[in-house]
Amino acid sequence: MNSTAAYIEANKNRFISELIDLLRIPSVSADPAFRGDVLRAADFLSQKLREAGADKVEICPTAGYPIVYGEKIIDPDLPTVLMYGHYDVQPADPYELWNSPPFEPVIKDDKIYARGACDDKGQLYMHLKAFEIMMQQNQLPCNVKFMIEGEEEVGSNNLNTFVQQNKERLRADVILISDTGIIANDIPSITSGLRGMSYVEVEVVGPSRDLHSGLYGGAVANPINILCKMIASLHDENNRVTIPGFYDNVQELTTEERTEMAKAPFDVEEYKAALNLGDIYGEVGYSTMERNSIRPTLDVNGIWGGYTGEGAKTVIASKASAKISMRLVPNQSSEEITEKFQKHFTSIAPKSVKVAVKPHHGGEPVVTPTNSVAYQAASKAFEQTFGKKPVPVRSGGSIPIVAMFKTELGLDTVLMGFGLDSDAIHSPNEHFGIFNFLKGIETIPYFYKYYAAMSKG
Ligand code: BES
Ligand code: MN
Ligand code: MN
Known about the structure:
This protein folds into two domains: 3-194 and 365-455, Zn peptidases (Aminopeptidase, 3-Layer(aba) Sandwich), CATH 3.40.630; 196-250 and 296-363, Alpha-Beta Plaits (2-Layer Sandwich). It is built from twelve helices and 18 strands. The protein has a six-stranded mixed sheet, sandwiched between helices. A four-stranded antiparallel sheet has the order 11-13-9-14. Helix 1 crosses helix 12. With 457 residues, the protein is α+β, with helices and mostly antiparallel strands. It binds ligand BES and manganese (II) ion (2 copies). The site of one manganese (II) ion has 5 residues, from loops.
């Protein structure tokens, strides 16, 4: 056993219990009721960063939740890795679907169950512990900076300003993020792209008040009926999005690229079984893996209006609303897509209703280079600890700040995640495998080692 593995073996119980302490803090950024907890998570991390040996640790205020910063500069002439993560988590509702309370972490079948276990507390904490190991063993081969934010799950609204105002402090050679996943524990992979996002909320307003559905039904436009019709019309019979110009800038992959992609292991039957699906579904002409990575989509994320309480109430609601997200791929622009959506959605509404479209956060898609020194270093690190060369995989999720880092700091990102699709992030019973947590801690120092070594030559 080498020294890193030995250190992990000797300290793994403490690593896990520290993570559990972090997971106990309900740092839900979306809900102001948790404000104090979100701030407590930032405190906790700043203290742990300091204990691990970081200098200039600071809780940097923003207009929203603070950014935890820390660094270790061993030699200004050596390369610098800028680690990014987020300490905020998604809301835990619906609570009743959790087998154990979301903020009272439990270990079951070698997995830690808690909101944020994988996304992203478990994954960001791997970096703190990997840093601790490198510091303790005098092995840190280059400089490192940590930037851990508290608003990722609500659109990273204040990170852009922070980055713009701190360009010098954040100067680095590469960004390193663990907030994605691998294909399986025996099939390591490195995420080579993320989708972008346009998120909108729509409201359809009909009559000025709720109406008796017998006295008025059939004679006035029912906003819920209309909204459903409008939403249904956003896809055609091939499950393609009907918004004019939606696909205009979509980069089509070459046949070779698609063939290469199809080599990544994927079993449709297993996929169906895991989600209890009667059948797969999606845009005609594309595989499941393509549908959730290289193709843009439009999905309703929530829809409401009218009476949803116990029993029956005969009413035509005055309003109906929906939240809709569109996942974007290179070279779609979130601003353009939001605009096209707004124009189209307003244009398809009958005169009998009024429609309002409110844009929420957006983010640009990215493809990260797989020929860079940093990617190669990550690849070698995975190969070292998993015993297999990782495959590059484009993910369907979004981390909007990755494109922003490229624009603002000119830096590419290495997406070195260790989660699994089955970890149920954003869902009840989110969990993170202890294997994955410890493997991440073991793999990260190798990334630093190879990255520093390969940057020299
Ligand atoms: N870590 C996820 C994104 C992710 C997960 C990417 C798994 C790839 C694989 C991140 O925290 C997230 O949830 N992002 C949001 C977007 C954000 C603007 C709310 C998403 O993808 O919905
Ligand atoms: Mn995340
Ligand atoms: Mn998330």
